[in-house]
Every structure is written in C-alpha cells, then in structure tokens.
Specification:
InterPro entries: EARLY_FLOWERING_4, EARLY_FLOWERING_4_dom. This protein is mostly helical and 114 residues long. It has helices at residues 17-50, 53-92; strands at 5-6, 15-16.
Length: 114
Amino acid sequence: MEGDTFSGLGNGTQIDGKILQAFQKNFSQVQNILDQNRLLINEINQNHESKIPDNLSRNVGLIRELNNNIRRVVDLYADLSTSFTKSMDASSEGDSSGALRSDGKAGLKRNRPA
C-alpha cells in the first residue's frame, strides 16, 4: 500500500497510501474512544439512578475520565484536520510526500491569518 495513490475524493485529487493509513488510524482511535465514552456514560447514568452514595462518588472520577476522553477526541480531530489540509496543499502542488511524518501527525502547524 505504501507509495500507492487513491483518487477517492471525486475531484481528481489523489491521496498517498501513507496518508490514507494515518487517517484510518486516527479514525479508529476516535471510534475506540467514543465506544469507551458510551460505556462510561451508561455507567454514570446507572450510578446516578441508583442514588447510592458510593456510586455517586464514583461518578466524579468517571466524569473526569469522560472529559479527558473528549479532549483526546478533539485533539485527534484537530490532527486529522491539519493532516488533511497539509495533504491537500501538497497534492495541489503535485507532491503529497512530506505532508505527514511517519507517526501520522502533520509536521508543521497551519498558518492562520492575523
């Protein structure tokens, strides 16, 4: 798959295989976190409905974990957005290499207008 290109965007833009793998990895991580959040929310709701003091106290830690997971999802989506922007910029210049580092993250931050 390395070195392969895909033209799945419908506008003739090609995506490098490594970039596609990085997107799939990030989306998989997001899905795993969201699945975990669903379980956390179910447990939080059960604890709340039970009105048992120990269960209600446990909710404090569960809600903190849920908040941390939400932050992780936001960070992963930010990485995806940056990576996608970099890959589109690179492909519009005719070169998609270097859009992502080997760890799947963008090598540079996006410049925003002042």
